[in-house]
Amino acid sequence: MTSSSGEPTPSVWIVAVASLVVTAALVGGALSVFDWDATPFVSFGSDDPTRQYAEQRLGDVVLRGELGHDGKYFFVQANDPWLLDPSNNAEILDFPVYRSQRMLYPLLAGGFGLFGPEAVVWGLLLVNVVAIAAGTLGAARLAHSLGGSPWWGLAFPANLGFLYVITIDSGGIVAAAFAIWAVACIYENRLGLGIALLAASALTREVMLICAVGVAVWLWTRKQSRQALYAVAMPGLILGMWEAYLMLRLGPDEGSTESIGLPFVGLARAVPRWLDDPITLAAGVCILAFMLMYVVRWWDTRSLLGWAFLGFVPLALMMTQKVWTLIFDFTRAVAPLMTATILLVFVEAKRPRNSTSDAMVKAVRGGHS
Questions:
Q1: Cβ(180)–Cβ(153) below 8 Å
Q2: What is residue 112's DSSP assignment?
Q3: Which residue, of 50, 133, 168, 171, has the greatest Cβ tally within 10 A?
Q4: Considering its fold, how many domains does the chain have in total?
Q5: 5 lies in a domain?
Q6: Residues 2-39: tens digit of each pLDDT
Q7: Are 313 and 291 in contact (CB under 8 A)?
Q8: What is the pTM assigned to this prediction?
Q9: For residues 98 and 57, is the Cβ–Cβ distance under 8 A?
């Protein structure tokens, strides 16, 4: 499974290419239905200010419901990712600071601010297609590092939450791909690169700081206090600097998105609504089962992978009824945990408890990054 140099064999690339081909075929099929118009993925709403914004720049666009979905906000951001002209771009967002803190996905999709609106529409979609393949590659390498088959990397593209994400041009796939790669790099004794990828993940979706905290705790439990501080401080500092820039450019937001509340309250209120839809009920039960399996395996292994995504469990328990009610929302919210659970339960479970290579211990102690 490894080459003479210790690097993973081309099998991990085969898994990633297979994921890319299938994803591209599915996306291509959807595009053909709309005569190769990519605006349905952006998800503009008929009763939303971003509709007029888009029509001024693109002409007619395909609308999805009254309010649309996340892609419409990322489209606005990608047209001005550096906030050089907020009065004509960012200020149209419902919560400009909250939306703009998720900057890396629209930055990539907008060609770092160089693309025009037509290219941005395609950039939003293509970045997610590539991110699916990149996340698969990272998950395959991670599975390899854990002693499993690289084909377990398909746990990334087979994630229902990510499949929903790609239909609305949202940033969750990119954020999760960075996080999976971060964990894979740390397993491969590249701590510095892993921390950099954790920062990139947080800049794509701020909640991914959970992973940085988890990695830091794992390092701390191995008495690597300096490395633990770097693991949480560097992503936090970089995200904080971007937040400070946002405040200077935009000022504070008014109101909130109301996605987090008291533990168990939102879940308890949503469960009766699940009974009206067997598919939602099945998905909700599956996610709760995955959360339980994850906690059990984390407790047993206390591994890097277990710590890295553990924070999504309490986060899920604090999600509001609004999030827990719809399968479309709650599967996206905890999607990284779903992929991590498969790798933790079905791959890492085969490893002896507390097994860590001598090279890895040396790496986190500062041997190399």
A1: no
A2: G
A3: 171
A4: 1
A5: no
A6: 443 445 566 899 999 999 999 999 999 999 999 999 99
A7: yes
A8: 0.93
A9: no
